[in-house]
Design a protein that fits this description.
single chain, mainly beta, three-stranded antiparallel beta sheet, two-stranded antiparallel ribbon, binds zinc ion
């Protein structure tokens, strides 16, 4: 099962493991491979 993430800018759907980068401080950075839109510190489902 591959959860998909939709880019808020270009609407491209990509597997979450391809576009999310986990940081050492448990923050997660989303980077779109198509338009290179970046979102820092996005929220995850983990409480
Ligand atoms: Zn994009």
């Amino acid at each position: 099962m591959n959860p998909l993430v939709i880019c808020p800018t270009c609407q491209k759907q990509e597997p979450i493991h391809d576009v999310l980068t986990a940081q050492s401080n448990q923050n997660v950075i989303y980077t779109c491979n198509q338009c290179h839109h970046t979102v820092r510190n996005i929220e995850t489902s983990k409480g």
